[in-house]
């Protein structure tokens, strides 16, 4: 039997709130394989078992590679705020408290009277921030033997390379980091995590971490002997960077669990004056700034869908089988905001379920429009808007957004934009020159493991 020569590929991993994705691209940028599986969660709730996650990602890489591909570099992107305490061997000691876990509200409320630190940070202080998870993690078993805190997104690369680090776009999500001078706020860290020494060095997105030392993957022939790991980070900035590489100056409107509008700007963090309701992070492979705004999306629809009749009309409006009533800008629905706050109907909202469904989606589309306008004011300019995420494949929703916006925005054809963005980072770290348009404009294979 002859020896099979595997094709060299770069691998992007997206650790999402709902699903984890692995995408492989070749040196030209063509997507040749992908695997999508549910993000493994604790049976008792939304906690994530980090060891199970590491195992699942390696299984997904093996499935994507099969007998055809050999990974030469991998970069992981994903969830912005979740993480775990680890021991000296980088073995997780705690489970990860999800950014949307309702227990964060209680932790934040109890924490507020003793919060210290100098505002403004890169992101507003609210229950979603990483520092809330730090407090929760310290209360869990194993905290006394903790050596480091590692973000869930960075954990695979840290585990494979043996090098603890925190990607800079995730440092900006903590509520304790200043991207302007790449500095931790000692008071904020001490009042939440307890010791700044638990934080690993902050590394720039796109930087080479080290070797991809996985005996399991190497024995299977899925990675080359010289394979490297590359710093990834927060999913939305990496997705936005990939789209910006394809369409320079574009804003990405990514719609999934949340709606996030993100863009790359030329001004460096040191010169950037953060605008209200705007969050920032370092620019990716640049000296500029990542600018983003986050809006609640899925949670608002879930709340409204507790009424079965409203839920049925929402489904029809989203899939395009029904037309909305002319009440999109009625103000009858008040969305719950990012970081807390319950959705509600206005006092004058009618009981008619179709009217309520139309008002809900209209209010959410308006929130998305305002997010785009805020990011533009934040320095993104007048570049075109591209749409991504699961909601971008709902034709009725796109029609509603276009009606509210007054212009048409084109969806990105690639469904896993973050994973492909991470793969592009890995490929460029190898010195390859993949075509972003080829990577984000289609795919050659679809493997759902």
TrEMBL record:
Organism, scientific name: Schumannella soli
Name the UniProt record assigns to this protein: Carbohydrate kinase FGGY N-terminal domain-containing protein
GO MF term set: kinase activity
Annotated GO biological process: D-xylose metabolic process
Record-linked InterPro entries: ATPase_NBD (IPR043129), FGGY_Carb_Kinase (IPR050406), FGGY_N (IPR018484)
Keywords: Carbohydrate metabolism, Kinase, Transferase, Xylose metabolism
Domain Carbohydrate kinase FGGY N-terminal: 10-239
Keyword Kinase part of the UniProt annotation: yes
Family: Belongs to the FGGY kinase family.
């Amino acid at each position: 039997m002859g020896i099979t020569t595997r094709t060299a590929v770069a691998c992007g991993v997206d650790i999402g709130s709902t699903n984890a994705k692995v995408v492989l691209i070749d040196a030209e940028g063509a997507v040749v394989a992908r695997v999508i599986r549910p993000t493994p969660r604790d049976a008792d709730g939304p906690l994530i078992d980090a060891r199970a996650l590491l195992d699942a990602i390696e299984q997904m890489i093996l499935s994507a590679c099969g007998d055809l591909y050999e990974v030469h570099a991998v970069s992981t992107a994903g969830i912005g705020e979740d993480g775990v305490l680890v021991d000296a061997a980088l073995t997780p000691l705690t489970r990860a408290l999800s950014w949307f876990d309702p227990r964060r509200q209680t932790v934040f409320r109890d924490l507020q009277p003793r919060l210290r630190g100098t505002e403004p940070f890169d992101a507003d202080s609210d229950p979603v921030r990483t520092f809330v998870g730090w407090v929760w993690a310290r209360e869990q078993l194993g905290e006394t033997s903790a050596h480091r805190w590692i973000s869930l997104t960075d954990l695979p690369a840290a585990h494979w390379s043996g090098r603890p680090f925190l990607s800079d776009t995730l440092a900006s999500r903590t509520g304790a980091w200043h991207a302007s001078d790449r500095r931790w706020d000692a008071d904020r860290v001490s009042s939440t995590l307890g010791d700044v020494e638990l934080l690993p060095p902050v590394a720039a997105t796109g930087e080479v971490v080290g070797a991809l030392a996985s005996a399991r993957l190497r024995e299977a022939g899925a990675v080359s002997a010289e394979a490297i790991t590359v710093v990834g980070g927060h999913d939305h900035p990496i997705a936005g960077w990939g789209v910006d590489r394809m369409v320079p100056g574009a804003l990405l409107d990514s719609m999934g669990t949340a709606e996030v509008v993100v863009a790359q700007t030329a001004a460096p963090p040191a010169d950037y004056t953060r605008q209200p309701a705007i969050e920032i992070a370092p620019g990716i492979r640049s000296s500029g700034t990542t600018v983003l705004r986050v809006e609640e999306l899925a949670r608002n629809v879930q709340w409204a869908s507790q009424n079965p009749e409203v839920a049925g009309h929402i489904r029809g409006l989203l899939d395009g089988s029904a037309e909305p009533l002319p009440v999109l800008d009625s103000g009858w629905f008040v969305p719950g905001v990012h970081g807390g706050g319950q959705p509600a109907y206005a006092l004058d909202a009618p009981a008619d379920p179709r009217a309520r469904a139309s008002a809900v989606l209209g209010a959410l589309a308006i929130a998305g429009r305002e997010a785009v306008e805020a990011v533009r004011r934040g320095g993104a300019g007048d570049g075109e808007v591209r749409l991504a995420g699961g909601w971008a494949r709902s034709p009725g929703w796109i029609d509603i957004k276009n009606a509210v916006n007054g212009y048409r925005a084109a969806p990105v054809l690639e469904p896993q934009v973050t994973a492909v963005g991470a793969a592009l980072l890995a490929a460029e770290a190898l010195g390859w020159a993949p075509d972003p348009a080829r990577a984000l404009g289609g795919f050659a294979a679809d493997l759902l493991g």
